[in-house]
Give the backbone structure.
Amino acid sequence: MRLLTATLFVLGLAAPAFAQEVHLLVVTGVSGTEEHAKRFEGWAATLIDAAKKREGLPDANILYLAERPEADPARMRGRSTRDAVEKAMTDIAGRARPDDQVIVVLIGHGTFDGRQASFNLPGPDLSVTDWTKLLDKLSAQRVAFVNTAPASGAFLPAVAAPGRTIVTATKTGGERNETVFPRFFVEAFSDDAADADRNAHVSMLEAFNYAKNKVVKAFEQDGLLLTEHATIDDSSDGRLAGMLHLTAHPNDGGLKVDMTDPEMRALVGEREEIQKRIDALKLQKDRLDATRYEQEMEKLLTDLALKTKAIRDREAKKAGR
């Protein structure tokens, strides 16, 4: 078996035989004040709107649980109680297929007493132990768990696992001050400046880098000592975080295509597979003979260009051009 094929198998990067889907769960917790409630709800709305309008994520794949019933009736699916969050995670685990992406974003307040960390909800909280059990239901999926609350760094050791990208607004549980990270994290998905690789989609890694840099600049501009240090934990050295998006098809070349068309979905899926092979080959650059590497890469880039042309041609044909 060729080295490239073996690498793809080991990394689990082979494309699935079915259309991959993204499932987004957004939870806003206890606010404490009207000001905080509006802020948390506004950030949630920004993220959900980006997922729907910019990335085309269908309503059926978005679950939004908020503290206040009147928060956003058009977007929310219920209150963010412990029972509701547990049910939402169980429901997602029940319908998500292997290799689907599941993105969980927590916006609100968090606590850490030196032993146990929790995300604050109306009624009983969900501790890091509770969240670990819920995330274990998603062992067959690729997961991004984003906790933007204060003291969220205390979640890292417990919830980190293969197949997961963990993003926290703080490095440790001891960083308990109110965080500004969530503002910039959700903003990233609507700002072209966050799209570092210019593929018209923002990955979890790109959103994290964008937000982390913005946080540092915000503290510097206010002349304040940095009190939050956003952290990312990725079981594959950032490769998984770079592949997780609010869209299931980040490798469509930035084309706004009709994904309801079965033939178009197939073409985009084939392009994704080629891109994954390119990414896997890049990881082997230092281990392969230079000539072989160039030959392999040239062929893959040619295949990518041809598949992109096929996507463009299909879209033009549908548009009657």
Notes: Strands lie at 22-28, 62-66, 78-79, 101-107, 110-112, 117-119, 126-127, 142-147, 164-168, 231-234.
